[in-house]
Amino acid sequence: MVRKEILICSGTGCLSAGSEEIEEKLMDELWKHELEDKYPLTRAIKRTGCMGPCNLGPMIIIRPEDTFYGNLEPSDVERIVEEHLLRDKVVYDLLVEDKDGHRVEEFEKLDFIKGQKKVVMRDSGDIDPSSLDDYLKVEGYMAARKAIMDMDRSEIIQEIKDSGLRGRGGAGFPTGLKWEFAAKEDEDQKYIVCNGDEGDPGAFMDRSVLEGDPHSIIEGMMIAGYAIGANQGYIYVRAEYPLAIRNLQKAIRDAESAGYLGENLFNQGFDFNVELRVGAGAFVCGEETALLSSIEGKQGQPKFRPPYPAQSGLWGKPTVINNVETLGNIAAIIIHGSEWFNSIGTEGSPGTKVFAVAGDVENTGLIEVEMGTTVREMIDIAGGVADGKDFKAVQIGGPAGGVIPKEYLDTPIDYDSLSEAGTIMGSGGFIVLDEDTCMVDVAKFFLDFTQEESCGKCPPCRLGTKRMLDILEKITEGDGEPEDIDKLENLAETIQNTSFCGLGQASPNPVLSTLRFFRDEYEEHVYEKTCPTGTCKALLKAFSIDKDLCVTCGKCVEVCPVDAISSGEESYSIDPEVCISCGECEKICPVKAISEGGKE
Amino acid sequence: MSDVKFNVDGKDISARKGMTVMEACEENDIDIPKLCQHEALENLMACRLCVVEVNGKQITPSCGLKVNEGLDIKTQTEKLRKYRRMILELIYRCENHYCMFCESDGDCELQDLMYEYEIDRFEYPRMFPDWDVDSSHNHIVKDTNRCVRCGRCIRACDEVVGNQTLNLGGRGITNEVIVDSGVPLGESTCTSCGMCMQVCPTGSLSNKHSLFKGNKDECELTKSTCLSCSIGCCTDVYTRTGHLVKIEGTDIDKESGGQLCERGRFKPLVDRGKRISNVIYRENGEESELSLQEGLEKAASILGNSNEISAFASGGLTCEILDAFSKAMRAHGALFDVVGAKRYRFETEVKRRINMIEGHFINDITEVMKAENILLYDTSIYNTHPVLASYIRRAASKGTKLITIDAYEDRFWNHSDKSITIESPKTQLTRLVNQVIKEGKASIEDLSRVSSILGGLRVHPEDVMEIVNLLEEASYDIIVIGCEIIDRWSLRHIFELAKLEGSYVISLNKASNQYIRSLETEGVYEEPEVAYILAGEDEENEDMIKLVENAEFSIVQSSKKSELTDKADLVIPSLSTFERNGTTIDINGKKKEVELAMEPKGEMRSEIAFFEELADKRGIRWGKTNQR
Amino acid sequence: MGKNKPKVATACMCGCSGCHMSFLDVDEFVKDLAELVEFQSSHVIMDIKDIGKVDIGILEGTITNDENVEVAKKMRENCDILVAWGDCACFGGIMTMRNFGQIDNILEECYVEKGDEDSVVPDDDLIPTLTKKAKSVDEVIKVDAYIPGCPPSAEIIRYGLEKLLEGEIPKLDKDKLRY
Known about the structure:
Structural class of chain B: alpha/beta
Number of strands of chain C: 7
Number of strands of chain B: 27
Strand order of the largest sheet of chain B: 15-14-25-24-23-16-17
Radius of gyration of chain C: 17 Å
Order of helices and strands of chain C: EHHEEEHEHHEEH
Low-confidence stretches of chain B: 453-457
CATH architecture of the largest domain in chain B: 3-Layer(aba) Sandwich
Shape of chain C: elongated
CATH topology of the largest domain in chain B: Rossmann fold
Oligomer: heterotrimer
Largest sheet of chain C: 5 strands, parallel
CATH class of the largest domain in chain B: Alpha Beta
CATH class of chain C: Alpha Beta
Helix content of chain C: 25-40%
Mean pLDDT of chain C: 92
CATH topology of chain C: Rossmann fold
Radius of gyration of chain B: 28 Å
Number of domains of chain C: 1
């Protein structure tokens, strides 16, 4: 019998879904069947980083056959051990179904995984992030060795330039150019900073990479440091990511003691050290100049550019700031070459992009796809819109991004096409919205976020976003006035043109983008005082009971949370003054006698 | 500096390379609105009102944009005006600005801009955020309701005063200026200099003592010099109908950033002692009022009949008054001294004895900001010379090593790298240091031996070592000696240290007017027949009180009732600081004008004329009055 | 003769009448004004308080109760050009400071907590009901001309009236505008 290996996803999502309990149960079962010799725990059960399909957690993969079991309950473990491990028989009914209802055995054949192309997430879910050995087994630090031993600085920069890699933090600035600028600066001290201050609501790709493959980021920084002449790196992570911090700390320690960090790396006279800096989780610290201020121990507020950090950054020294995902690409490019990287993705946007897919889709989680994949294909990978509902739009790019409606479903995902469609790549938020979503409410959600996270430095962002939010609230509460939409647009224009930093300038985007594609929905809120999707509770009218249909079953009385329904002999009735339009009675009524309206 | 040519609103202008577009426009009288930019402070670029259109597309704040050949700048397009109007309305309507009862109504930069942009209606309703007013401070009211978050106060406190008391806290709409880590201003590390208030564009930080006494347009402005200490800061004195309204710093002095200290800015507004308007004569427990002329006759006859006269003057008087007083007193054969002159005499004596050359003495106190190390003897300069203290803090914040030596608390505790407290005499440490240097570099053990020889000093040898090492390494260090060190031995040791190490010295003095260096002074009789005290408005002086108590007959000339005037046998009125015209000499030896800001009140019109007449009684004449 | 003269009505809502007082400071211009316009109603210079059809309607004060709302609406209905006089009418003024709190709490504080032992919150049908929030005039009705100031000076009031009589809507430029 071939010795098997059990990979258990221990990303933050699976941990909260109960993966530790599964792991414990697994160990119990192995003990029970006296398998401890055959399956020494340290080697047989491997805790990996995020595997991607988060809504299938807790999940395990059994190797070498790559069998995937998802949505596990502790009670399932016994069968997996007894049947799969002992008798080598796949537990068929614990397999995950594909969209046609067929059980899928192999992880790679999952609908969710099939359409993906993994570059940055290559090791996450495959290796134990706390083990340097594991990383070394997947060609870890080979890229650094190649770069430092066999390439000179300009060659590395040229390779990155040729690869066409663009910053994955949002703006898409060519990474090779950034390195070149910093490399040209004639300074003894330079820095390389990894921006892990991932702050977009719902985004967690940076976290997953840091948690699942921390060495790859260190390696990317090392190569960048060598290329620009920096021997100190900083990784800036938010305090809300304890697992990422723990794994990074261990990775840095391990790399140091194994000689992958420190002095005279690969005997080439190059020193490189990495320090971890933990931020308090201010959204604005994702902005590079604010992040640098924060590392310096000052208040995280953006600074005026120029000078750009590549000329004068951390403590006034040339500094390259790259996003986690950007750095995650570096080792792969060095190993496989720029030509290989160019073959992936589109001409203007080579490579892949990781998206945190959330919202109304069947399968939420991390999806890494080739650039140029269409929005439609993305949604297919995620199993389509949940509950068979209709697609309405997808919000891409987080609080600085915008929505893409049905008509643009075939928009390829690359920097330029997204920008044409009025949104941005951003850091990779991808929130699918179904037909029941109110677009005014979506805009309100994002604006509420930026408004609260504004650093407060400049009035357009600090006060303008609050004003816009006030107007959106007014609209969703049914007090919207005709001029409010103009006011939103006026405010947005001023904020875009006069805010200090990119975050402020982009803050009106969610409103402008929803206004562009769903203006009629705003107008319905304002003029008709209705919310077509029923999301805005204040706009719902009181429910009433059709006397002719009512069978006086009394079910509605039971579910009404505010006791608005009183009984009568022939029919029940709802007191419109008391009714909060929650709709519970409508849902439960067996004869469809209850409907909204009738208040006015 | 080379010139850069570019175009603003269709007009070709040229500016020096390195200037910002805003600075260049200001030089060319092109008006650009602003709230956060301030010439004494680093640019923050926060208010976004100074945005201009660059080359027809980009919109950029002009305070951050450096001039560049061929730039095409538009400052007043319809679009820019629209944005500025929007920002102004956002600021005005999101916080609680109510001009009609604001102290700064008429003196408000926000209000001026609202008028400039002709905002006579608002599109958005008020927000009514809930902010508390902080009135815990003795002099300053901090009202967030009127704050525009320009950050000037924060930068002023940090960059100009070197004190870092103010900070920004909170995100988004809850963002506000906080004090230290969120304490009331009155319980904070604030030094009460009032610089924050001076740079505040609105009524968010205002002077408790000037509230509603009139805005700048309603006041008369006199440019004068502060006589609170020898730094002699330039002041703008605002008066209205003959009363003092407020005192502000001016931007004439670039290094000081226009700051004043608590004594210069607030004390004259707070100190409302009873004014002496008549001559008072006390005899056998009886008190009688005399006219000024009768008082003069009385003083002349008493001085004329005495052999041992001690004349003692405050150091906070103008050169002209000190001069006239000394001449009048010498006419009557008195010994003459001024506050602070003793220290100067000692200094001269020590310098002569140890052959210390003048080159060791710096005559520009702003040099401390360039020093590598500062060794500060006596941290009382925090109170006596607050502006110099601010320079020292600024230097320390930027990396200068600061070592403080004091017998009591270190008032630079949060800025000093090393704080040494030794019991009096303070010279012990210096002596020890000198010993070490003379003997060559000693080990810690050696130092312990030395210290035991010197006898039971409570000084850690490590401290001595550190100072020695520090001074030996640095190429530019400055020793600042506070004015409370007045014994010859201390001065000798410190000067010797400076000489040995090639350090520079800034020696401070209690006299505000350094004219005392040119005046002939000497130690006076401690128990004279007659003591004539000419008081200024500086702190009550113990030497003066002792003299009045010890004299058989005492004459006190003062503008305000005090312990001195209560004890005197003859009290003669004098003018207040703001009623005088004259000159003063500051610590750097620069002559500065003291201007009359208010008409003299009471019978006394000129002290100089009074002293001339007093001298005339002994047949000694000088000046105009006597030629008449 | 009086037939072609434009008709003017003025009214004061919740305010101190300071703007009207300032209007009286135009001194002898009142005489000229009386030649040029016909005052239909005005509480400071005539007995008629009921607003009738006019060309120019002038409002002072903040809208803080239902009577104010009625006066404002009536004025709007009856005039062609509506002018807001003073900071209260234009911006809401000092009266809006009550919006920092809830109206019931404020009444309680004024009449009960700070009143005599047996004082109560007045409750009489004759007393107009306070609106939930105090508002500037343009938050309730459309305003055509704004003359802010606390109060606007007599010269500014005169300037505004002269412009109106010339058939123009007055707009204060930066030299005239004062809050």
